[in-house]
Amino acid sequence: MRRNWLLHAGAGVCLPLLWSMQAGAAGFANADFSAAGVGVGNANVAGIADPSAASYNPSAAAWMDGFQLEGVVMNKSRNTSVRRGGFVIPNFGGTPDARSIHMTWMPHSSNFGMTAAFTTPFLANSQWSPALPGVSALSLKGRRLSVDLVYAISSTLAVSHGVDWYWFKASMDRGASTFSGEDKASFGAHIGVNWKFSPFWHAGFLLRSGAKASMKDNLNQSLALETPDEVKLGLSHDVGDAVRLELDADWSRWSKLKSMDVTKAGAVVQSSPVDLQDSFAIKSSATWYWRPNTTLRFGYGYETAANKKAALQPMIADLPGHRLSMGVGGRVMEVHMDLAYAYQFRTKTQAGGAFAGEYRDRDQTFALSISYDF
Question: Is 39 left (phi over 0), alpha (psi -120 to 50) or beta?
């Protein structure tokens, strides 16, 4: 009965994954790396216990024996618009889908292990109606390969250190000016800590540096991009053997990104100034180990925006808002499958500056993960 129920639940989420190809606007950062992560609203830096630890906090892999491999597919849709002078101006950009691969390896009777993750942490696709003049159309995808060495210092404390290798590809158009280029050699680094300071308490920490990319096209034009530094802190508590609760706080240093100008021979071809601020998020989650092979997940979070109200850049039209999520996981035919859905509703924002107006934004994410223990 349980297996049949999980298969029906899988079909119910897989169909939207295949059909929901209409997407709205574009965000910049993508914090979703697995269905288990989406299900708990990404509040898992302390209590993560599946292969996506390779993305969320590699040090947690110290408590996972053996070799595990996971594949993830996510479908994202978004709807963004601005009301100006009584008219609603839509953003026609379609949010790209995302894929992830995670691997964790912690040999038996060893204090050393490693993790690897291939993810898409940055996504954007902004195509505003011509009724909002002066905005560049932006399509951006940033992929990342992360490799970590994990060390269990003791039975309660583990650390990790890793490097990040980025591939960026972007196109930006404004009128007759076009750019399409890429950068395959941008690097960053990160460290993680997972501490079981009590039988029922875990603390987690992840610090990730940003990367500097310089994308170039065949017309000798370039687009410089600097991604934010990130800090994630989390505390989880196990209520008996059935429930795990977690509270996380995230900070991203978006103020590092000052402009997204396209230049050629030192001259600006497309001017796209951005005046961003650092963003914060508070996330909470509950994981219920309902049956031996079935897990239910729930999450809620609130995050601020990198855009400032006084100088909102529609090309990066993120707004502050709330996110609700839920997920289910279980073992089916010798593999572990997780399914999740998240809905984010952002606060209507009256922005000033060159692109003044009332901005609205909604988005949703469907995620499917399949993993196998070797």
Answer: alpha
Q: What six digits make up the tokens of 92?
A: 């026609």
Number of other residues whose CB lies within 10 A of the CB of residue 225? 21
Contacts of 230 (CB under 8 A, 6+ apart): 206, 207, 208, 210, 250, 251, 252, 253
* Beta bridge pairs of residue 17: none
User: Which of 51, 58, 48 shows the shortest CA–CA distance to 72?
Assistant: 51
What ranges do the domains of the chain cover? 2-373
Closest to 363 measured CA to CA, from 23, 15, 17: 23
Find tokens 């997780």 and name the residue: 338
Q: What is the pTM of this model?
A: 0.88
Domain range 2-373, its CATH number among 2.40.160.60, 1.10.1200.10, 3.40.50.10610, 3.80.30.20:
2.40.160.60
pLDDT by residue for the chain (374 residues), tens digit each?
A: 333 333 333 333 333 333 333 333 233 899 999 999 999 999 999 999 999 999 999 999 999 999 999 999 999 888 889 998 889 999 887 777 789 999 999 998 899 999 999 999 998 888 888 888 888 888 999 999 999 999 999 999 999 999 999 999 999 998 788 999 999 999 999 999 999 999 999 999 999 999 999 999 999 999 999 999 999 999 999 998 899 999 999 999 999 988 889 999 989 998 888 888 899 999 999 999 998 889 999 999 999 988 888 888 888 878 899 999 999 999 888 899 999 999 999 888 898 888 889 999 888 999 999 999 98
Cβ atoms of 210 and 190 closer than 8 Å:
no
